[in-house]
Each structure stands twice: as C-alpha cells, then as structure tokens.
C-alpha cells in the first residue's frame, strides 16, 4: 500500500470531485466512496457515465474502463485488467482505493492489511464473481455486499436518478460507519500486541499474566514464544481477575488444558469450597474461563488448575 499516494494528496486539498457510475450500486463502489469520504469529508461524488464528466473529474472509480493510479483512475472492468493479490483475489474498485488510502486512514500498514483481510477482500471477491465459501442450501448468508445492495430501491420503488442518488448516499453513510468500526478494531488489535508482549510468563512458561486487559489470543496462538502457555490471567472492567484457558487454535472450543472438571458451572461459596480458597467468582461450565476477586486469588486458582 502506498505510504503517500497521489490519490491521498489530491484528497487533502480543498474540494475535489470524484465520479462513479450511475444506476444500481454495489458494495465495491459504495465502500470505495466511503473510504474517499473518510479521507476528505467534503469530497463531491457524482454518479454518471457521461464521458465528458469522467474526463474532467479529479478521481474516477468503478467506471471509465481505465486503471491508472497516477491519474486517479480506478476501474476494473476492462478486458486487459489484471490487478490481483498474491492469493489470486482481484482488486475491485474498493480494493484499488483501499490500496492507495488504507495505510493513511489506519495510521499503519499492519492495521490497513487487517482491514483488507477482514473487509476489503470479501467485497472484492463477491464483486469479481469469486465464491469464498459454499452456503447451506436452505440458508442465504447476508453478507455486507448483500446488505449494501439492499439500499438500492426495489422494482416497486421510485428508481429515478434522484431517488437512486439519495439511496447511494444513505448506503455510503452506513458503509462509512462500518469502515470506521473496522479500522478502529484493526488498530485496537495492533495496540493489543504491545500489551500482551509486556505480560509476564510464569510457571515455566505455562502462565501469562497481563496487568491490563487486551485481546491476547491472536498473539499467544501465533507466536512460538507462547506455545507452552496454558492459561492467561487478566483483569476485567469490574475489578475482577479472569483465568482464561488457551484454546488449541483460533476459533476452537477445545483448550490446551481446560480448567478442572470439578469447578465447571460453579460460582460463589460453592466454588470456594471446591477450589479451597475464598472469593472465587465463577467457573464457566465450558471450563474455558474462571474468575476471582483478586489477582493473587486468580494466580492460586491457576496453580491449582495446572496441578489438576
């Protein structure tokens, strides 16, 4: 992704006109418009296929049959177009715009890459006719592409150019919020890495203690440094301390070592009596998390679990 692209430079100026196609809209052009608006909230976006307006626009995307980043032309419908990622997923107009603006909008290439994996690639794949997964025959998965598509007026609605443009703007407002949330989440996980890396490994590397909460699974599961960690201790927002069992892999319901079976589903004094210490809060019946009112108590619960 470009650190400072020609597109980003243009968007930092006052005013500016971007053009995309008229008629029905899709997730790729709507989210591309949302990204452009994040970079320049005052950007005017026209929806037309008139060649004269395309020729004089500062930015053209998803229309015009020209891909030329230096000239801020970002279409992907021409026969000679071949822009694709290393995993073979092509870039639609959203992907092309994100490749130019992602790092600047996120503040880091790492966060921009997360957004590309979480949001952009799926939209690009759908727009380019690539099936990422097979749906259950009786269930239609409503993806973000279909949600954005639902903003289009139906056949029974007013489909005049004015109504279509108003619907497009409503879709862009919604998509902009989704994009902002995704950027925030991506940046949050990047910041979480630093918190996890400041944690302390104890019990011969089987316990990781964090003094403040941060999402830890990605770091712990993705680094050889933590391959022996069985439990993670961290505080919650209510001044309690949680003991988390580390799953086998991301998304798994199986753990490297579950909490003791005798604790499952208990809380309060009942759990105190079984564990053998005071002020236990709970243990989930799935045995993947338990709680204590103090850090020292959580540490003792973990040591008991390790010996179980």
Description:
The protein folds into two domains: 186 residues, no CATH class; 109 residues, no CATH class. It starts with 5 loop residues before the first helix and ends with a helix. The strands form two sheets. It has a six-stranded mixed β-sheet with strand order 6-7-8-9-11-10. It has a five-stranded mixed β-sheet with strand order 2-1-3-5-4. Helix 2 links the parallel strand 1 and strand 2. It is elongated and about 80 Å long. With 308 residues, it is α/β, with parallel strands linked by helices. It is 42% helix and 13% strand.
Largest sheet: 6 strands, mixed
Roughly how many Å apart are the termini? 49 Å
| N-to-C SSE string, H for helix and E for strand | HEHEHEEEHHHHEEHEEHEEH
Low-confidence stretches: none
What's the β-strand tally?
A: 11
Question: Helices, strands, pairings?
Answer:
Blueprint: H1 6-12, E1 17-20, H2 27-39, E2 44-47, H3 51-56, E3 59-61, E4 67-68, E5 73-74, H4 93-106, H5 109-127, H6 144-149, H7 161-197, E6 200-202, E7 207-209, H8 217-222, E8 231-235, E9 241-245, H9 268-275, E10 280-283, E11 289-292, H10 295-307
Parallel strand pairs: 1-2, 1-3, 3-5, 7-8
Antiparallel strand pairs: 4-5, 6-7, 8-9, 9-11, 10-11
Record keyword descriptors for this entry.
single chain, 308 residues, alpha/beta, 2 domains, five-stranded mixed beta sheet, 13% strand, elongated
